[in-house]
Amino acid sequence: MANALHTQLVERLGCKYPIIQTAMGWVSEPSLVIASSNAGAFGFLGAAVMTPAELRRKLAEVRSGTDRPFGVNFHSFQPGADQIVDLILENSDQVRAVSFGRGPNAGMINKFKDAGILCIPTVGAVRHAQKMADLGVDMVTVQGGEGGGHTGSVPTTVLLPQVLDAVDVPVIAAGGFGDGRGLAAALAYGAVGIAMGTRFLLTQESPVPVNIKDGYLQADTGDILVTTKLDGIPQRMVRTQMMDRIENSGSLSMWLRALEAGRIMKKRSGASWRELISSARKMKATGQYASMKEAMMAATMPMMIQRAVVDGDIENGVMATGVVGGRIDEVPTCRELVERIVTEAEARIAALTGDPATATAPITEGSQCR
Q: Quick check: 296 pLDDT over 70?
């Protein structure tokens, strides 16, 4: 049974189990990366919302808390991106992988690969997976429409086999995963593992304030919506009073929110308005955003997430989530979560292969999802 879970993901990333803790801005902080990595998963540090100085400090914090390999997520268009890349390369002895969207070019990908760092972008469409494979990435994480934050419309059960048929690199499944049954199903499709965000957000080591975690736990699947009002691209969020106000707002209100978030980001990061506008222009150049207004909103939108998951301000912040968040009803430690997922996956695989010795492990009632 151990061989069933010993996939290329485990072999190449150096983790114990084929489970990735995804990079979530303000959430994938050192405490979560350390706990998930020590539990046998592969943790990603969410550097896309960090300054270079913050990343330097937090890389050192992760390294002091675990000797396990881990990854770093970043955006090539964020302020200080060149310095962030240099910091990642300086820590290549323990940073085993980077994750990103469509920003990095072949030259940057080759720079990471030359340092022994695997490139694992997250994609939400077949053509994006093909483009990343053509650029020479090592694996791709495929997020179906069930995923949280920015998301597409194609369900994981449709998108995953499409990408598996379209590319020759190993594929990691994301979007809708939260237990061992999901891991077994992803492996059955041909994926080399699963990536989870919301499920790791709701762990004890996640830095999210207790009142925000309670807000997530109270949300049912009917309380989760997809909106384009944050930056013009579909994003999956928990329905809150703030989200209702945003859904009912007009174009002027969207601009005012972007400018306010930009002011907060400018104060926090030390970036100038010129740097923020430059970041927005780079985001628009990726082709994801139709206008500078949308790109500017995307560049500053993390500040709205920060209000919730850092400040605990549920009235003025927004809460990204995958649909699976509507099933989760408890907050385990990372170790408890990972061990439970592995036990359940082994039981499901054993049941399919006819191994009676390990086919009876139950899905723990109330311990994973409601």
A: no
